[in-house]
Amino acid sequence: MRRKSFETLACPIARSLERVGEWWSILVLRDAFLGATRFEQFQKSLEIAPNMLARRLNALVEAGMLEKRRYSERPPRDEYLLTERGRDFRPVLWALLAWGNRQFAPGGPSVQIVDAETGVPADPVLMDAISLRPLEPPFFRTVPGPGASEGFRKRHGAFAGNSAPTSAKAARSAQRRLGDANV
Amino acid sequence: MRRKSFETLACPIARSLERVGEWWSILVLRDAFLGATRFEQFQKSLEIAPNMLARRLNALVEAGMLEKRRYSERPPRDEYLLTERGRDFRPVLWALLAWGNRQFAPGGPSVQIVDAETGVPADPVLMDAISLRPLEPPFFRTVPGPGASEGFRKRHGAFAGNSAPTSAKAARSAQRRLGDANV
Q: Burial code of A118-157, b = ≥16 C-beta within 10 A, e = fewer?
């Protein structure tokens, strides 16, 4: 894969993908959130070649998302624990889960997020914790932040005036949703 | 890459990754949300080989996330518009952006989500839209849903009693956060 330029890496999405932008890494994290810590547990769940799994685990340790801890000296055995940075990835994983459930689960969700006490399924929505409004256009948008370089600012606005174009069908549906929200 | 078993594909995260589990696909979607529609626009932004970009665009069209529309007959030219399913991916992209800003932006965020009217930066949190509580353990957890097969149920609980282990540092920090929340 061709190396990205610095300008592109200034994007927080590209930066994040540098750490987890790979199928297996995300499934390793998923299993870590489900409680897997040991090599054999990940391997049994993911059914991947040991060398591939070792590579992914090490990459996640290097990215500061997992912490390696020796739990046995003879034979030498390590376990892998989520770090604070790794745990902080949960909203991404759960947003992905929610999208999968909305889009690809015609027979009902196979996994869902529920209230741990009552078991009532949650309605996962990315919101602004300050105003408690859903993070959706046209009410919210992305703009260059204080850490943006001049070049990055230009790039971010490259398609301006042309923002988030949608198919006619999607536009109608968005209109309907907005209508609902205003009720 | 080895083909996943059906049991694993029943997981909504794995299913989602089948559609977008690749670095470039997510950056293509990012640019689509910024307003890119034309091949040259994506190419200029992503700096990838035309055949690679064409493959990613076609994969996203096949996954139902982009819609291809001919805007010129001579020469034949297509543009790529986000479908409803593609637009529905925004929370995942923004959750990834927020995680990148929290974890990898020591100089301040280069892109941020703001209130479109006031410009005030949002605090993006995945919440339960029903109870307006953040989707975090121990208050929320994932469980097999109505669409789960017997085999999948077993697998989901494979690490039970061992859920979301964390490093000592992360555990202390979670404790602090919970303390704050209870104030």
A: eeebbebbbbbeeeeebbbeebbbbbbbebbeeebeebbe
CA-closest candidate to residue B69, choices B56, B82, B59: B82
First-to-last C-alpha distance (Å) of chain A: 49
Q: How many CB pairs under 8 A join A and B?
A: 391
Interface test with A, best of B40, B45, B99 (most A CBs within 10 A): B99
Strands B111-115 and A140-144: antiparallel
Rounded Cα distance, A39 and A1, in Å: 28
- Clarify whether residues B72 and B23 are in a common domain: yes
The number of domains in chain A is 3
Q: Is the Cβ pair A146, B109 closer than 8 Å?
A: yes
Q: How far is CA A19 from the centre of its chain?
A: 11
The one-character DSSP state at A19 is H
Amino acid identity at A129: A
Provide the ipTM.
0.84
The answer to whether the Cβ–Cβ distance between A129 and B129 falls below 8 Å is no
pLDDT in tens, B34-46: 999 999 999 999 8
Rounded to the nearest 5 degrees, what angle is found at the Cα of B22, between the Cα atoms of A48 and B122?
120
Q: Which domain holds residue A159?
A: 125-183
Chain segment B141-172, per-residue pLDDT in tens: 999 998 888 877 877 777 755 555 556 666 56
- Six-digit token string for B1: 């890459």
- Nearest chain A alpha carbon to B120: A140
Asked if the structure places residue B117 within a domain, the reply is: yes
- Strands (DSSP E) contained in B15-171 are 66-72, 77-82, 111-115, 124-128, 133-134, 140-144
pLDDT confidence band for A149 (50 / 70 / 90): confident
Whether residue A147 is found in the same domain as residue A174: yes
